[in-house]
Amino acid sequence: MPATPPRRLSLQQIIEGQRRAAFVGREAELDLFRGNFTTPPEDPGHRFVFHVRGNAGVGKSSLVREWQQTAEEFGALTASVDESADSVPEVLAAVAAQFAGQGHPLKALDRLLTTYRRALHDTADRLATEDEPSPGALAAAQAGLIAAGAIPVVGALAGGIDPAVVARGAGGLRAVFGGRARQQEEARLLAEPVRVLTPVFVAELDRVADAVPWVALFLDTYERTAPLLDRWLADLLIRGRYGELPANLVLTLAGQRRLDPAHWGDRGRLVADVPLGPFTETEARRLLTGRGVVEEPVVREVLRLSGGLPVLVSTLAANPGAAGEANATAVERFLAGESDPDRRAAALACALPRRFDEDLVAVAVPSSLPGLYDWLHELPFVVEPHSGRSRYHGVVRAPMLRLQRTGSTQRWRETHDRLADAFAERRDAAAPGVDPERLWVEEPWRRAALDVLYHRLCARPRTALPDALRAGIEVCGQQPSAARHWARTLVEAGEDADSAVLRDWGRDLLTACTDHGPRPTAVLGLLLARAELTDTDRVAALVARAWDRYRAREFEAALSDHGRAIAVDPRSERAYQGRAVVLRSLGRYEEALTDLDRAEEIAPAWAWAVYERGETYRRMGRLEEALTVLDRAHALDPSAAVPLGSRGLVRHRLGRHEEALDDFDRAVALWPEYAWALVRRARVRTALGDPVGALADLDRAEELTPGLAGTEGERGEVYRATARHEEAVACYGRALALDPDYAWAHGSRALALEALGSLTEARADLDRALELDPEYGWARTQRERMGAAGDRRVGGGVGAGEEP
User: Fold this and answer.
1) Bridge partners, 52 (sequence order)
2) Is the model more confident about 434 or about 659?
3) Which of 211, 215, 311, 622 is deepest in the core (most CB within 10 A)?
């Protein structure tokens, strides 16, 4: 047989090989990392965590890339994440995507991440369809969370946990809410994404680790993400916190500062601390020799200008320029080897965007230069981060920006204006089909919008600042977790435009974001206190803060903010509508209806105010009136799924099951991922004698939101309704394994156990349900019916599965 020819290398493989061949120095660090893969995990000398630290430009990213290649040579499954993923869910998503690209998908994690992303989009709609706990129950819930350590006593929302949503969804607090919170498991995923996602990630990690020799994870630019990831990563290493990590896992962090001893102090024996300094003169000379730079005067000049920083040594080695120009700036030396003045100017212009692609290069450099984009990637200071678009290394970009900013103010502004216009086109192209009130939720739109702000601020810092602050109000109202990105944009624009006012605003806003996690209250307070806002902006900020306080169950504060907004603008329909929701949560239904009267008087065609009236009637038990109003809400906005879902629930309560089924069908058609409606449609189908259809709905709901106790409990209801009591008991058992404090499941299982003749166990389940929720009237009635001795009649009529 003829020999099989060797597989042809790809262009990327050739380029990577050339890059690795050009890598010099850091032999001790390479040997340290390489030796770790030849040391068994059980050996005391093995290290599970490597921390590379050093100043910008010292070569951390280059070393980490080299380490990643080394890990792959030892058969490791690898993933790299930089500052573009600055939350735990984003890190997990990036790791899962890279593992999938190597043939090892994390399917269970991917499903849960899909649920999480969708739930983030739908939180507002879900809140609108949920009954509210009493203020007393809420206080008890938050006290229980603090005692359990779910909410830190110091630093509200530290760790990214919103106590309002936690209080709705944390499993240990079902008793406080009487087992009646809807979509409890999804609420817990929103409230505690780290706690819910991480065990699944660890289990998936353990599974794929059995199929590969090593698993190696790399987190670069850790100085940016440490405030949000430090605690999580350190907790991963604690036995029993999130599950058992595989022993063949190696984690690498690369940042500018030492690890925080508050999180890592007692884990020092697991960590190999690898401080990086500038190249030694020997290492720098080796690199220069490898690049053909051997003339001693030139070598000495490169050493002087670079200070041994690897990125500068590499850059100046590519363009050493002529020796003897003592006053040559670092920027001139970066480009001294390029004789084409157009390319030199183009390289400077392309430093202006924070990240760039081929289209943006054409915007920054209007004149046509063939092959410019490819040429830029030959420059040693141009890097392509894990998130995609290319960028200049910060050590090189900063002096390039300074040179252009001080050289020609007009050219600086014109280029930034062109780039802002280009990003505005991308932003507008991402808007069609998106609710205008949810634009900041959509990542493509948000990314482009922040780049528009950055370039407008760079061009005209003071003039563009009001619009940037106004955008912050919108961010806080629509997607509070994105406020960090917005504040960081102001910080970067302040640094790059050398604007003290932008730097101050950005620094203070970023501090507010860091100190208060995803809650926007502190940021909005800062804007209300210091920004020069119009009345319209002030009302928007007050309403946004009121909603945040409402979700945190700070009801009186929420009422105050809505009241202040109304005082500023007595015709703010959103302030009246928001205050009505808070009043309804407090059981002050008539006052809520009065505010909704005013909202509808101001904006009679606003469907959401009409919908809130229907919800208020439903929660008051005025079902016929609720139905009439929800009909009107649907007529005003036929494309909205939530009013249809609410109307379907009302019709089901009224016994109009066929009409309820039609409403849920239409809601799901409008919103195929509407799991809340799927579960309730399953209940309607059960009432109509269609258990097959009900189980199909629950299967779909489980696919959308896997591992939720509520879905499994509803499955038990279907089996109980069809007299498959043993299967029903098994389903309720699985639901209670997911959430032992699920009062509703205890009550339903009691009826199935009674039907099987297990009266003692049935009474025990009802006792437990009442212990968890003393106000659970249905369970009390069933317990009294069974009595101390009990009779063997199975409870009829409305079951435990009825909507509370």
Assistant:
1) 254, 274
2) 659
3) 215
- 329: helix, strand or coil: coil
What are the pLDDT digits (tens) for 577-628?
Answer: 999 999 999 999 999 999 999 999 999 999 999 999 999 999 899 999 999 9
Q: How much is the pLDDT for 125?
A: 44
CB atoms within 10 A of CB 563: 14
**Residue that is written with structure tokens 């919108």 in the block:** 474
Is residue 275 within a helix (H) or strand (E), and if so which, with residue range? strand 271-275
Q: How far is Cα 791 from Cα 614, in angstroms, rounded to an integer? A: 42
Give the tokens for residue 174: 């079902």
Q: How far is CA 150 from CA 90, 233, 635, 744, in A?
A: 21, 17, 43, 24
> What gap in Å lies between CA 346 and CA 362, rounded to an integer?
10
Q: Give the closest residue to 558 by CA, choosing from 606, 592, 529.
A: 592
**What is the SS3 assignment for 79-101?**
EEECCCCCCHHHHHHHHHHHHHH
β-bridge pairing 391-392 and 382-383:
antiparallel
Strand order in the sheet with 214-219: 76-81, 214-219, 249-255, 49-53, 271-275
d(CA 505, CA 470): 13
Q: Show the 3-state SS of 744-767.
A: HHHHHHHHHHHHCCCHHHHHHHHH
Phi, psi of 126 (to 5 degrees): -65, -45
**Going by C-beta distance under 8 Å and a sequence separation of 6 or more, which residues neighbour residue 340?**
none
Which two three-digit tokens encode residue 215?
């698993």
Report how far residue 654's alpha carbon sits from residue 505's, in angstroms, rounded to the nearest whole number.
55
pLDDT exceeds cutoff 70 at 282: yes
Prediction pTM value: 0.64
Cβ pair 275, 238 in contact under 8 A: no
- Residue-averaged pLDDT of the chain: 82
Choice among 134-148, 270-284, 350-364 with the minimum mean pLDDT? 134-148
First to last CA, the chain: 75
Kindly give, in sequence order, each residue whose CB lies less than 8 Å from that of residue 172, ignoring residues fewer than 6 positions away.
144, 148, 741
3-state SS, residue 209: helix
Measured between alpha carbons, how far is 178 from 804 in angstroms, rounded to an integer? 10
Per-residue pLDDT tens over the stretch 58-115? 677 878 888 999 999 999 999 998 877 768 888 999 999 999 999 999 999 998 888 8
CB-CB contact of 278 with 310 (8 Å): yes
In the DSSP assignment, the letter for residue 273 is: E
Tokens representing 388 are: 């995609």
Helix (H) or strand (E) holding 605: none
Among the listed residues 408, 414, 319, 423, the one whose alpha carbon sits nearest the alpha carbon of residue 365: 414
DSSP string, 18-30: HHHHH--S-HHHH
Average pLDDT score over residue span 194-207: 91
Beta pairing, strands 214-219 & 249-255: parallel
Rg (CA), the chain: 30
Amino acid at 287: L
DSSP one-letter string for 350-417: TTSSSSB-HHHHHHH--S--TTHHHHHTTSTTEE--TTSSBEE-HHHHHHHHHHHHHH-HHHHHHHHH
Residue type at 224? R
CA torsion, ordered 286, 290, 296, 298, to nearest 10 deg = -110
Average pLDDT of the segment spanning 488-508: 94
Task: Kindly report the backbone phi and psi dihedral angles of residue 671, in degrees, each rounded to the nearest multiple of 5, phi listed first.
Answer: -140, 85
Neighbours of 432 (CB within 10 A): 6
pLDDT at 392: 87
pLDDT for residue 172 = 32
DSSP conformation class of 334:
H
CB 312 within 8 A of CB 342: no
β-bridge partners, 217: 79, 251
The tokens 């999480």 sit on which residue?
116
- The neighbour count for residue 269, using CB atoms within 10 Å, is 8
